[in-house]
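Quick log. Single chain, no ligands specified.
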Amino acid sequence: MRRQGPGQGQGQGQGPGSGSGSGPADGYPSGAGIGGPGTAVREPLRTEFEFELPRGFVDESGAVHRNGSMRLATARDELVPLRDVRVRENPAYLSVVLLGRVITRLGTLAAVHDGTVENMFASDLAFLQDFYRRINAEGHTRAAVSCPHCEGAFEVELAGSRLGES
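-> predicted structure:
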């Protein structure tokens, strides 16, 4: 079983003339590696994901906002809330501050922030926490491999199929 080598990851060095998997430039024999003949080409890295809240956020005027988008979190997004006094006093507040940083759109609201998140229904907060975990873990537990017999390329899940499994 061969794992994906350095520089062959998603969004790195891919494009015309960059070793797209059709020959020795990618470190695999012709047609044997990821991206070789008969294999799917990787999509560009998605950094923003659409969602629909189960209940919806109700603003001051009574309008309900259900559709939104969330971007991938950065290391900074996860570190900055740790300095927040509210998080230090109550660690459960971490997800509220974190979600306020990564939700980029919610309905027609001009801005989304931690104050918006703390006024959501509990079911919507739980939905967003799970959505955050799913989009930020995607791709981190998969490895590109090829079959030692037929040299067919595929990905394997290294972690369990459900969150929290290994």
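The radius of gyration is 20 Å.
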